[in-house]
């Protein structure tokens, strides 16, 4: 029957950890997700546990049946958990004036926040902390065998906590949401309390050793010594030694919690910043602690020198943690190898990731888990004092954990960096082991034991000193994004492609790095690229300007007096783009200070926004700041774009979007950057549906043709997009220059970037569930899409390449088309074509009767020519180019007109390239580009064309501009394709053998990243 007590205590740990997860998430919705806010929650929670363990230990000596009190406490925890959501509902009313009044005084504000959290959590956490000493005392009093029972009890509770961590993160919260899960475990705790109260008398009768002679006969001499109130230790431990041992045990709590913080940060970099990474690390640690406690417990009755054993365990913690140094930066390589194999499901990847976590954390946590029962064995000499001594040991360790959770995140890692911080903890472990050994040897020197401990310490120290430094570039390679391993890196390139690290800093909330690869610079947060000076520039600039441009379409809006807010600073490019608008004030809220430092590596592209007097930097949680700041804004921009990232996901909920809408002035516009290339279509629908639920008027724009980076615009007023409104924006010199920086040569080009209009968004998102603070649908579902990246590609394949017109803004244009001139219509259609929407461009001209209306406007004539040329066969132009009877490539050009013949010609040209030759033959290169185009290799054709753009005898042919136009079109570089085809049109119309040169075609783009596959996306 005594096994039932262990089952009770397992469920106790299970429910306690689930409540901790639930309440922390609820409180973060009020206080934000800054490191200080999270640390405040954790500190308040553990402080309650420490207080409870001390009070529970004292109470255990004074009550007749500690088990009965335990049952009452469990039921009380359940009842209080029922009230927590109600208490939190009133917390914002209290928090708002505190935020407004004391936000400028960081320390006072942090103290007030701690007090608010502590007041709410002190009662249930104190009750939770009291349970272990109460049940320990009950077992000691009734069972009388407590050498192993305390360790088994602690192990059962920790195993329950492990189950709670895993099931809460992977099953309960994704399935039921916060409030329903809270209600479920209110029921669990009430049922647990009732079960204990109904069974405690029967349990007491069944295991009363005083009335069980048969069991008495089975007791060992050590156990009998304990029953008689003596000690089974080799010799009594002096009081000073016990106190010092408890103090050092508290220090091991600090180290253990520091390891947890540091390992979590390391694995967030290697496994990604999703909620599942945090869950996997904590689950692995708790499993090891529970197993360690269970494994050591049966051995304790034979341990006569527990302090010596504790010293040995700490030395083993240090040695095994050092081994982790050899593994951490190899995790991305393991992920890379696994990602290139067949993956049957997300569970398979998470299981593999769990194994990678266990490689580093399991052994140190196992030895740490053995320490608590050993300490109890050392300090617990008398049965009647079991509860108090267990409570004291637990309190000391928890106090150390409180200090460790704060110090590791806010002092040790920011000051020393992750690697040196882990090294410091290893040295602390070795120091604790040495001090414990000194305590043991001070009572009686034994050479054999001293030598054993010395060897253990030397082994740990030597492993520490020979450990190689962590490869920061490899650690932050981002292999948790499976498609990088599958589609970007070959095995050879993964091993050889090491970027130059320009900046690397472990900040309070993230590890920020700046990498230089080739000629480009990329900014990473926890291994995930957040910005770059290359492929991301279009989105970074447009998300900062498009909301202002859209707002300028409102005729009653005065330009130049806007007050704006921006969530996220990143590289500073978006803030710099917004400041090109003549706004009055821009508040930028950035949660991670190291991002600000890293932005200096982007000063060549970001306009140095920190030096602009209109720029106001606020280091805080963006959502929390917008929730409680009294200011309102004309424009709000949100840069964090990945809803799968824990913390960022809270910026994609209905509650957040609704709060943003409330913070906008009438006619205000909100711009949200969304990266959709790693999202399942169902999650894309959730993003759109959630946004639509908060904003009555919504449109989605892409940052460039066929881009997977979107900008959602939301407003309380219809977004009508009149041309005169856009022209107002275009007339601002700094705005026009900034838009031209990303290839917007005409403000009408912005119309072509429309991804979905309001009706299309509503139709696509119809019937989708909304993402809320309670259900966290995106936070729990979106991380799975990192594994099956292709599902996101399928969405864009259906959307962009279905042959249907999309993103059509004509129904929303004012006075369309009656008040639009032929030039404006041509510019609108040209913008559509240059955004990859040739069908929309044709439809616009057909609707307005201008498809064949040559002679009415020069631009219209050019556009009609391009529309005629974009689907012309290139074979006639090739035959004309190589038509001369003495041309050595005439016959090959004729054969290259078919795919099979083109492949033969390509092979022949490759063989010719191996032969010795004089100089470079441009005409052969042109033939090669033609054959590659016919064979479907647009990328290879582009490489050849890039070598030809400075050879007049080639660029003056009819084939080159036509070929370049179609190749650029296939490569989704529509602006360049339009330019080339306009030249091709002239070339086919002119009788001269020397049509206009193509020298001014765009610079070679071969070095630019592929769409969707760049590590810097």
Automatic annotation (TrEMBL):
<dbReference type="GO" id="GO:0006596">
    <property type="term" value="P:polyamine biosynthetic process"/>
</dbReference>
<feature type="region of interest" description="Disordered">
    <location>
        <begin position="991"/>
        <end position="1017"/>
    </location>
</feature>
<feature type="transmembrane region" description="Helical">
    <location>
        <begin position="152"/>
        <end position="176"/>
    </location>
</feature>
<dbReference type="InterPro" id="IPR029063">
    <property type="entry name" value="SAM-dependent_MTases_sf"/>
</dbReference>
<feature type="transmembrane region" description="Helical">
    <location>
        <begin position="275"/>
        <end position="300"/>
    </location>
</feature>
<dbReference type="Pfam" id="PF07690">
    <property type="entry name" value="MFS_1"/>
</dbReference>
<keyword id="KW-0620">Polyamine biosynthesis</keyword>
<feature type="transmembrane region" description="Helical">
    <location>
        <begin position="350"/>
        <end position="379"/>
    </location>
</feature>
<feature type="transmembrane region" description="Helical">
    <location>
        <begin position="421"/>
        <end position="439"/>
    </location>
</feature>
<feature type="transmembrane region" description="Helical">
    <location>
        <begin position="69"/>
        <end position="91"/>
    </location>
</feature>
<feature type="transmembrane region" description="Helical">
    <location>
        <begin position="240"/>
        <end position="263"/>
    </location>
</feature>
<feature type="transmembrane region" description="Helical">
    <location>
        <begin position="307"/>
        <end position="328"/>
    </location>
</feature>
<feature type="transmembrane region" description="Helical">
    <location>
        <begin position="451"/>
        <end position="467"/>
    </location>
</feature>
<feature type="transmembrane region" description="Helical">
    <location>
        <begin position="111"/>
        <end position="140"/>
    </location>
</feature>
<dbReference type="Pfam" id="PF01564">
    <property type="entry name" value="Spermine_synth"/>
</dbReference>
<feature type="transmembrane region" description="Helical">
    <location>
        <begin position="391"/>
        <end position="415"/>
    </location>
</feature>
<feature type="transmembrane region" description="Helical">
    <location>
        <begin position="36"/>
        <end position="57"/>
    </location>
</feature>
<dbReference type="GO" id="GO:0022857">
    <property type="term" value="F:transmembrane transporter activity"/>
</dbReference>
<keyword id="KW-1133">Transmembrane helix</keyword>
<dbReference type="InterPro" id="IPR020846">
    <property type="entry name" value="MFS_dom"/>
</dbReference>
<feature type="domain" description="Major facilitator superfamily (MFS) profile">
    <location>
        <begin position="1"/>
        <end position="446"/>
    </location>
</feature>
<keyword id="KW-0472">Membrane</keyword>
<dbReference type="InterPro" id="IPR036259">
    <property type="entry name" value="MFS_trans_sf"/>
</dbReference>
<feature type="transmembrane region" description="Helical">
    <location>
        <begin position="182"/>
        <end position="200"/>
    </location>
</feature>
<keyword id="KW-0812">Transmembrane</keyword>
<dbReference type="InterPro" id="IPR011701">
    <property type="entry name" value="MFS"/>
</dbReference>
<protein>
    <recommendedName>
        <fullName>Major facilitator superfamily (MFS) profile domain-containing protein</fullName>
    </recommendedName>
</protein>
């Amino acid at each position: 029957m005594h096994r039932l007590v262990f089952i009770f205590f397992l469920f106790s740990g299970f429910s306690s950890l689930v409540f901790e997860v639930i309440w922390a998430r609820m409180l973060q919705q009020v206080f934000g997700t800054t490191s200080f806010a999270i640390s405040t929650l954790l500190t308040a929670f553990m402080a309650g546990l420490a207080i409870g363990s001390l009070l529970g230990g004292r109470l255990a000596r004074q009550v007749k049946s500690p088990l009965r009190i335990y049952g009452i406490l469990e039921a009380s925890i359940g009842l209080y958990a029922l009230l927590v959501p109600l208490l939190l509902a009133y917390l914002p009313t209290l928090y708002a004036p505190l935020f407004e009044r004391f936000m400028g005084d960081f320390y006072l504000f942090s103290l007030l926040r701690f007090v608010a959290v502590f007041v709410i959590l002190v009662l249930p956490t104190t009750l939770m902390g009291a349970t272990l000493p109460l049940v320990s005392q009950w077992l000691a009093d009734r069972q009388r065998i407590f050498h192993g029972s305390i360790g088994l009890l602690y192990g059962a509770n920790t195993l329950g906590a492990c189950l709670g961590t895993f099931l809460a993160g992977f099953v309960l919260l994704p399935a039921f949401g916060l409030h329903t899960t809270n209600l479920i475990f209110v029921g669990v705790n009430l049922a647990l309390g009732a079960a204990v109260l109904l069974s405690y008398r029967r349990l007491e009768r069944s295991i009363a050793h005083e009335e069980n002679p048969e069991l008495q006969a089975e007791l060992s001499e050590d156990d009998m010594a304990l029953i008689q109130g003596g000690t089974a230790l080799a010799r009594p431990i002096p009081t000073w030694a016990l106190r010092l041992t408890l103090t050092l045990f508290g220090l091991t709590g600090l180290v253990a919690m520091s390891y947890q913080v540091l390992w979590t940060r390391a694995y967030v970099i290697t496994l990604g910043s999703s909620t599942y990474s945090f869950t996997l690390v904590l689950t692995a640690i708790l499993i090891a602690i529970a197993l360690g406690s269970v494994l050591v417990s049966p051995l304790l009755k034979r341990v006569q020198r527990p302090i010596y054993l504790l010293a040995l365990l700490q030395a083993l913690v240090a040695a095994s943690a050092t081994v982790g140094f050899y593994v951490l930066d190899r995790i991305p390589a393991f992920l890379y190898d696994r990602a290139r194999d067949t993956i049957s499901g997300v569970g398979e990847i998470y299981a593999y990731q769990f194994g990678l976590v266990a490689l580093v954390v399991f052994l140190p946590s196992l030895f740490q888990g053995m320490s608590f029962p050993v300490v109890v064995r050392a300090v617990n000499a008398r049965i009647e004092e079991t509860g108090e001594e267990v409570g004291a040991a637990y309190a000391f360790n928890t106090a150390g954990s409180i200090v460790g959770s704060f110090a590791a995140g806010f002092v040790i890692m920011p000051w020393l960096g992750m690697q040196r911080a882990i090294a410091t903890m290893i040295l602390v472990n070795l120091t604790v082991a040495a001090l414990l050994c000194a305590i043991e040897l001070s009572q009686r020197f034994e050479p054999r034991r001293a030598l054993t401990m010395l060897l253990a310490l030397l082994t740990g120290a030597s492993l520490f000193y020979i450990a190689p430094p962590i490869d920061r570039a490899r650690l932050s390679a981002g292999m948790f994004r499976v498609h990088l391993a599958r589609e970007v890196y070959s095995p050879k390139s993964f091993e050889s492609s090491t970027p130059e690290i320009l900046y690397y800093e472990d900040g309070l909330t993230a590890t920020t790095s700046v990498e230089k690869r080739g000629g480009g610079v990329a900014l990473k947060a926890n291994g995930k690229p957040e910005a770059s000076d290359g492929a991301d520039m279009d989105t970074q600039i447009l998300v900062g300007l498009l909301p202002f441009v859209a707002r300028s379409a409102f005729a009653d809006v005065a330009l130049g007096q806007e007050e704006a807010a921006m969530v996220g600073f990143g590289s500073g490019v978006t803030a710099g783009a917004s400041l090109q608008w003549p706004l009055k004030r821009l508040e930028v809220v950035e949660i991670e200070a190291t991002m600000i430092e890293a932005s200096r590596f982007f000063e060549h592209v970001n306009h140095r926004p920190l030096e602009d007097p209109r720029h106001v930097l606020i280091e805080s949680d963006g959502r929390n700041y917008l929730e409680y700041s009294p200011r309102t804004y004309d424009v709000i921009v949100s840069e964090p774009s990945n809803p799968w990232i824990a913390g960022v996901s809270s910026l994609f909920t209905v509650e957040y979007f609704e709060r943003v809408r409330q913070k906008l002035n009438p006619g205000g516009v909100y711009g949200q950057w969304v990266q959709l290339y790693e999202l399942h279509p169902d999650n894309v629908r959730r993003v759109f549906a959630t946004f639509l639920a908060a904003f009555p008027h919504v449109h989605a724009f892409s940052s460039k043709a066929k881009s997977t980076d979107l900008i959602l615009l939301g407003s309380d007023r219809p977004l009508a997009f009149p041309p005169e409104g856009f022209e107002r924006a275009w007339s601002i010199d700094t705005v026009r220059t900034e838009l031209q920086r990303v290839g917007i040569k005409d403000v009408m080009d912005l119309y072509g970037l429309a991804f979905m209009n309001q009706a299309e968004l509503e139709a696509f998102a119809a019937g989708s569930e909304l993402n809320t603070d309670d259900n966290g649908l995106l936070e729990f579902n979106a991380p799975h899409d990192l594994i099956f990246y292709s599902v996101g590609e399928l969405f864009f394949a259906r959307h962009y390449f279905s042959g249907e017109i999309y993103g059509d803004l004509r129904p929303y244009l004012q006075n369309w088309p009656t008040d639009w001139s032929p030039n404006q219509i041509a510019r609108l259609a040209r913008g559509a074509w240059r955004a990859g929407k040739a069908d929309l461009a044709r439809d616009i001209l057909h609707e307005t009767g201008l498809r064949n209306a040559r002679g009415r406007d020069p631009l219209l004539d050019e556009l009609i020519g391009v529309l005629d040329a974009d689907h012309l066969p290139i074979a006639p132009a090739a035959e004309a180019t190589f038509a001369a009877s003495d041309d050595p490539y005439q016959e090959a050009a004729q054969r290259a007109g078919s795919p099979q013949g083109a492949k033969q010609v390509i092979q022949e040209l490759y063989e010719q390239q191996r032969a010795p030759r004089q100089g470079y033959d441009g005409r052969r290169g042109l033939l090669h580009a033609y054959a590659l185009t016919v064979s479907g290799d647009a990328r290879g054709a582009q490489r050849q064309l890039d070598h030809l753009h400075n050879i007049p005898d080639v660029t003056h042919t009819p084939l080159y501009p036509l070929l370049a136009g179609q190749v650029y079109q296939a490569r989704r570089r529509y602006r360049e394709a339009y330019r080339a085809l306009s030249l091709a049109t002239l070339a086919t119309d002119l009788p001269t053998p020397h049509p206009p040169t193509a020298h001014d075609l765009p610079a070679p783009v071969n070095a630019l990243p592929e769409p969707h596959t760049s590590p810097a996306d």
